[in-house]
Amino acid sequence: MSNVSRDSLLDAWNQELSRTLLPTSVFLILCIVVGVVGNSLVIAIYGLKLRGAKERYFIPYLALVDLLAVCETAGFNISYNFRAVNYDNKELCRWSTFFGFLTVILSTFLLLVIAIQRYLKICKPFAKQMTLKWKRMAMLCTFVGAAVITAPIPVTYGLDPAYSERFNVTGSACRRLTQEYISLSLFHTIICNVGFAGIVSALIILYTQVGRTIYAQMEHWKTQESSSNAIQMDNMPDGANNSSISKRKKRTMFKITLMFMLISVIFIISFSPKVVIFILECLNGRFWDSLPPNTRLLFRFLDITFVINNIANPFVYAFLDVKFSQQLRRTFCGHDLSA
């Protein structure tokens, strides 16, 4: 086969794939727009307007990681869609994949740290809590841990041969290598999947305990309110005001905790399909090449659903955090509509 014939066939195959994957490219572009605007607002409001709020300490850092993640992963996946089988920049492929994985794992570890903080706050209020020093130490540990887990990526990912039986041509795809470093790739896949399962299990266990504690406290308050309503008193006790303020503070703390619980649920749901595909890629070196166009589009959508995790949080804050929504109204309307 002449070079001209091979190049034209490869071009035809690549264009067909680009057209097939166009819906995912449009989705990713929308994710970048929403993610950049949403996470930038979160960083500005929580990092500047609500700076110093202990309950919300990790939010601007999580938003920064999500901002970097959506720009890197969505941007790279768009370029992949347009050069699915004629990718030619080996170093760009390796390091784009590395930084994409790094930001995703950073975000995952941060969610675990937040879950531990909420568990201590709600379930162990009289135990030692996370001080500013320990929060900073936790941030450092998440970065080091993410860097260690991501370290094999530049070795296990690169330009891999992609073959089409229909076009009878071989191209190059930026993906997990199927002919080199197979043992390392398999070991890395096992580590990542065990780590994901461990973090998901930890999130479920921690937030189950948190949920039970919140439910028990709410039931206790209901009982107290029923008892106080049954007894008519002319003079309220001096401590009633303080008790009411304490309840309001606890309700705010519970609401913020429920907000983080929802964020963790979104993470688990959006990231699970990626883990399944991660395993399928490792078990079948020609997984993507063997898929017909429509099936490929479906699996490609499943492969990028994890990006939702990086754009959903601002919506959660807007609906569940009163202070954040108030600051949003002040920013866009010039005054607080709730006043």
UniProtKB/TrEMBL annotation:
Cell compartments where the protein resides: Membrane
Asked if Transmembrane helix is a keyword of the record, the answer is: yes
Q: How does it sit in the membrane?
A: Multi-pass membrane protein
Give the main location.
membrane
Which SUPFAM superfamilies does the UniProt record give? Family A G protein-coupled receptor-like (SSF81321)
* InterPro entries from the UniProt entry: GPCR_Rhodpsn (IPR000276), GPCR_Rhodpsn_7TM (IPR017452)
Q: Name one GO cellular component term.
A: membrane
Q: Which residues form the G-protein coupled receptors family 1 profile domain?
A: 38-317
* CDD domains named in the record: 7tm_classA_rhodopsin-like
PANTHER family, A to Z: ECDYSTEROIDS_DOPAMINE RECEPTOR-RELATED, G-PROTEIN COUPLED RECEPTOR
Q: What is this protein called?
A: Cholecystokinin receptor type A-like
- Organism of provenance: Crassostrea virginica
Q: Which gene encodes it?
A: LOC111120438
